[in-house]
């Protein structure tokens, strides 16, 4: 896959005045397009009016997993045709260089430090976001993963990234149990992570999941900021008192 960033194929909400202070990159599911993420984009815009909220189109035209499957006129981040448990991780890995280049290109366009970049994906978009921060250091400071999964069991915690996993308990496509298991594994590895499973929700970008994500953004303080505050307090304590 080409590593040329797809900056032109996107839907963007920008601040009415001034420069953006945060960058949210939104990533749709296979078979959809950037418009699928509009409810999340609007919610983020309402909460963070000085953020740039950019919903991206996947780089490839969607192909149904099997000839019998219903075709959709959308896009995908990687092909699901012939995908199985043995080759899924390889397909994700092959798509990551182009994806990472696109994320970095958007951050550069807005002159945004990586800590102020957040990736928010649904289903296949969530898979890409989670695996991207596993593979690439200093790519984004936060990930919101709706109805997602890991392509492979995490072998390490992503460095300085806050992960927010959000899932419906009735999801028949990507069962929530897999994400709970991944979250427990990441906690053991020292990750900065929250995991929310809400009842009566299937495989969808449900308003309740969006509201929960906004709550986590409002209330969850990344570990790196806690450490910075503690270090500053320790330095202050060491200053001579007069």
Give structural notes.
With 242 residues, this protein is an alpha/beta fold. It has one domain: Rossmann fold (3-Layer(aba) Sandwich), CATH 3.40.50.1820. It is built from six helices and nine strands, in the order E-E-H-E-E-E-H-E-H-E-E-H-E-H-H. The protein has a seven-stranded mixed β-sheet, sandwiched between helices. Strand 8, helix 4 and strand 9 form a beta-alpha-beta unit. The relative contact order is 0.13.
Which helices and strands appear, and what pairs or packs with what?
Blueprint: E1 10-13, E2 22-27, H1 38-47, E3 51-56, E4 60-61, E5 75-76, H2 88-109, E6 117-122, H3 124-135, E7 142-146, E8 162-168, H4 176-188, E9 192-198, H5 207-219, H6 223-238
Parallel strand pairs: 2-3, 2-6, 6-7, 7-8, 8-9
Antiparallel strand pairs: 1-3, 4-5
Helix pairs in contact: 1-5, 2-3
Number of strands: 9
Q: Order of strands in the sheet with the most strands?
A: 1-3-2-6-7-8-9
The CATH superfamily is identified as Alpha/Beta hydrolase fold, catalytic domain
Radius of gyration: 18 Å
Q: What composes the largest sheet? A: 7 strands, mixed
Low-confidence stretches: 1-8
How confident is the prediction overall: mean pLDDT?
Answer: 89
Order of helices and strands: EEHEEEHEHEEHEHH
Binned strand content? 15-25%
Q: Name the structural class.
A: alpha/beta
CATH class: Alpha Beta
Calculate the terminal CA-CA distance, rounded to whole Å.
Answer: 63 Å
CATH architecture call: 3-Layer(aba) Sandwich
The number of helical elements comes to: 6
